[in-house]
Structures are given as C-alpha cells and as structure tokens.
Design a protein that fits this description.
Elements: H1 5-13, H2 17-43, H3 48-70, H4 81-85, E1 113-115, E2 120-122, E3 127-129, E4 134-136, H5 141-173, E5 179-181, E6 187-189, H6 192-202, H7 204-232, H8 237-248, H9 273-281, H10 284-292
Antiparallel strand pairs: 1-2, 3-4, 5-6
C-alpha cells in the first residue's frame, strides 16, 4: 500500500469537474442522436448495423475512458525509484543525470516530470489531461490513444450518418427539383444555399448536431494524428513542447534573455517505427523487468 500512497492521495485531490462535463456533453450528443436521427433514419430504412455503430463505439470509448481515468500512469515512489532510473538513458540536455524533484524529494528518472495538478512525479510523462482527470504516462498512454481513437470515430460516424440522412431526405422529397419566388418576384431554381436554409429551419437540432460533430471530428482527428506522430517517433507531448521551445531559441526573430542558454533537443529514444509503437503497448519498464528476471 505504501507504493500506491501518492497515487491514492492524487486521486483524492484531483477535481472531477471536467470528467462530469465530458460525460454530460457525450450524453447530450447521444440523446439528440437517439431522439432525432435514429428514428427518422429507420423510417428511411437505413441499415440497423449502420445506425447502431455509434452506440458500439460509445461502449468501447467508455471502457477506455474509465481505464484512462483510473489507471496509474506510472507514479514514481521511493519503492520504484531505482527501477525507473534504469529504464531510459539520460541525454544530459533535457534530462540531466542526478536531478532531484524538489517536491517529491526523489531522483528524477529520464523522461519523467512532476505534475503540479496531481502532485506526483510520473514515468514517461506525456501531459495532464483534464478530460480524464489523470496524468498520461507510460502505463496508461495506450488506453488514452484508444479512448481518443474511439471518441474521434464516434463523432465522425455521427457526422456521416447525419449527413447521409439529410442528403437522403433531400433526394426522396425531390427538393432539389423545386422552384421558388425570390424577393424580387423572380422564379428561381432551388440551389444549395436554399436547401441548407430549408434544412436548418425544418431540422434545426439535427443541423446543429451535424455542425458540432463535424467540428469535433476535425479537432479530435487533428489531435489524434499528432498523438500518433509522437507515438511513432517515441516522443511525449512534454518532450515535443520542450524541444520546440529549445528550437525556437535559435530563431533570430525571437528575443531571449542573455541568461537563457539554448540547447538543441535530440531524440535519443527512437528505435524505429515498430519498436516505438511496441513501447506504447509494452511499456519499457515492463520489458526491463522481464529482461531482469
């Protein structure tokens, strides 16, 4: 129990506001999908497998959401400090040897960082995610990536279903063949702008939902691609950010104080694409333990 003491204390100290907000937003989106789109799509004889896909993704997403929230990301304690010190090499730049955490009073292993939110040092620290109310580190990064993947897929699936429903509705009603009289009394053929206005006035909640999930899909998809890039190159968000700052120190257009000593970040932990991805699912500390045995 002593080894998990800091982890349990961090769980007690963290704020669950964003977790609750996350679940409320997700519940509102799925309620609207069920109330508005699901029934109407059934009337248009959409495939049930197609319509149930967002619910399947929701179930999988909630599983990985819970794992991301509750899994220990790799809390460094007195009990495992020596083990973590032997996992990664020190690059003597971003991660110098023999550094101590002033808060935890522990030697800082390479690629670790103290999280001010959780008040603990985390092995292979990536970032603190307010949406899962937990640090993302070596032991839960795989769950976080699957959580992000399924969340993106569910938003994109809803966007596709909503779009197909609206297009199908326009095609069935032959709305695109209709004409209307404009403000000047001229007969006009229905165009795309008119169709969008008509759909917004007739199905405002569905159009709003579609706009929301499209924007959400784009934002989540962009972030997912960034996370996959970091995984493929064996970097963490913390390392990428600090490396980007170090690179900017060499930029002639940025003014730095004389005391600032620019350091070039070198990623010494990348071992090739497949080895880097394997490290996400098989954390280096677990590999080291087996090798040691």
């Amino acid at each position: 129990m002593r080894a998990f003491g800091p982890h349990l204390k961090a769980l007690e100290d963290r704020n669950h506001t964003f977790v609750i907000l996350h679940l409320i937003l997700q519940g509102m989106v799925y309620t609207e999908y069920t109330w508005e789109i699901f029934g109407l799509c059934q009337e248009l004889e959409f495939s049930l497998n197609y319509l149930f896909l967002p619910y399947l993704l929701l179930i999988v997403n909630l599983v990985f959401f819970a794992l991301s929230c509750e899994t220990n990301p790799g809390t460094i304690t007195k009990a495992n400090e020596l083990l973590f010190l032997q996992v990664y090499e020190f690059d003597e730049g971003m991660f110098p040897k023999n550094m101590r955490c002033s808060t935890c009073d522990l030697r800082k292993p390479a690629r670790s960082k103290h999280c001010s939110v959780c008040n603990r040092c985390v092995h292979r620290f990536d970032h603190h995610c307010v949406w899962v109310n937990n640090c993302i580190g070596a032991w839960n990064i795989r769950y976080f990536l699957f959580y992000l993947l399924t969340l993106t897929a569910s938003a994109a699936t809803m966007a596709v279903v909503s779009t197909v429903f609206l297009v199908q509705l326009v095609m069935v009603s032959d709305l695109y063949l209709e004409t209307y009289v404009d403000d000047f009394g001229h007969l006009q053929v229905v165009d795309t702008v008119f169709v969008i206005q008509y759909l917004f006035l007739t199905f405002p909640r569905i159009v709003f939902l579609l706009g929301f999930v499209v924007v959400l899909s784009f934002l989540l998809g962009s972030y997912l691609c960034f996370c996959l890039y970091l995984a493929a190159t064996n970097q963490t968000t913390n390392e990428w950010y600090r490396g980007a700052r170090a690179w900017c120190q060499h930029c002639p257009h940025v003014a730095w104080t004389p005391s600032a000593e620019p350091q070039v970040y070198r990623n010494i932990h990348s071992r090739g694409l497949w080895s880097n991805l394997r490290e996400i699912f098989l954390p280096a500390v677990a590999h080291y333990e087996r090798k040691k045995k």
